[in-house]
Design a protein that fits this description.
45% of the residues lie in helices and 13% in strands. By secondary structure, it is of the alpha/beta class. An 8-stranded parallel barrel has the order 1-2-3-4-5-6-7-8, surrounded by 5 helices.
């Protein structure tokens, strides 16, 4: 027979033991990438052909792009929301993101309401403002951008959405400092960052340091390096934007993501030339190439 004290101790130990797996799942050693598939990698391919590929590339969710990079956002309009939702359900895929550079950061209200209806909680867009700023001028420009964005952030709050700004060349958010000001000055976590190594100096240590400095301000990580860029060139050179093909070592970046316990999406990405074509000629070839890139990332993760 157990005494009351012994019984209470046994119950407490059992409760702790039940909690241990959950605690262990949150440790850096258990870190995993959550993959999302960019529809634009398949060019203007029909959604019905792309959706079966989502599971094949280790993902469960889709990021749809509008023209010129893809046309799947326009396909959504042609299909209608109900038919689009049926297609997602048919292939056990969720809509994780809508990329909307076309609308820009200050015209997203209707898009966020549509995203909410479809169960999507993330919009990625570009910044707006002068490029090449530094110091106080940069801080003031970022603050002005955020102030102008506040009506959109109010809608994001209303619709349970997040607006993520991708850093991009020839843009206000063209540097690590601009991203740090965005993270520091943002009035709400509804405003986050889509982190694109492609548009930053190709220095693994600097990129990893910046990832740590941004912390929980990053909603999406593009597994994307500059390589030889995305101009007209041989396909083998163009593909150097992908993990494992170009010179960038992704291991320090993945270590930084693990250190901050990054819980956002990872999107293997590149731009083809010209925009709007698939990164390779056939859908199976695109999927195979994405899996090669994913295997490279996973090998790097296994060494950490």
């Amino acid at each position: 027979m157990l005494t009351r004290r012994e019984m209470l101790s046994t119950v407490a130990l059992g409760t702790l033991a039940a909690a241990v797996p959950q605690l262990r799942a949150q440790t850096p050693a258990e870190f995993r990438l959550k993959y999302i598939l960019a529809s634009s990698l398949y060019g203007y391919t029909n959604l019905a052909e792309i959706l079966p590929e989502v599971a094949k590339v280790g993902a469960k969710t889709l990021d749809i792009w509008p023209k010129v990079h893809g046309n799947q956002r326009e396909q959504l309009d042609e299909l209608g929301e109900a038919r689009f939702a049926e297609l997602l359900k048919q292939h056990d895929v969720t809509l994780g993101c809508i990329t909307q550079f076309k609308l820009g950061p200050f015209n997203l209200a209707d898009e966020m309401r549509l995203a909410q209806r479809l169960g999507c909680r993330l919009i990625v867009t570009g910044g707006a403002g002068p490029a090449g700023l530094s110091g106080d001028d940069l801080k003031k420009a970022v603050a002005a951008f955020i102030e102008r964005l506040k009506p959109q952030l109010a809608v994001a709050e209303e619709t349970d959405m997040t607006i993520a700004i991708e850093n991009h060349a020839h843009n206000l958010f063209d540097s690590g400092d601009s991203l740090k000001w965005l993270a520091e000055l943002r009035p709400t976590k509804r405003l986050q960052i889509a982190f694109a190594p492609y548009h930053l100096p190709q220095d693994e240590k600097l990129l990893a340091k910046l990832i740590r400095e941004l912390g929980d301000a990053t909603a999406l990580f593009y597994a994307w390096q500059h390589g030889q860029g995305s101009a007209k060139q041989a396909k083998e050179l163009e593909l150097e934007q992908l993990p494992g093909r170009g010179k960038l070592d992704f291991a320090p970046l993945l270590q930084a993501l693990r250190d901050i316990r990054f819980a956002g999406w990872t999107e293997i990405f590149m731009h083809p030339f010209p925009r709007g074509v698939p990164i390779l000629e056939t859908t199976p070839a695109v999927t195979e190439e994405l899996n090669r890139a994913r295997a490279s990332l996973e090998r790097s993760l296994s060494t950490l």
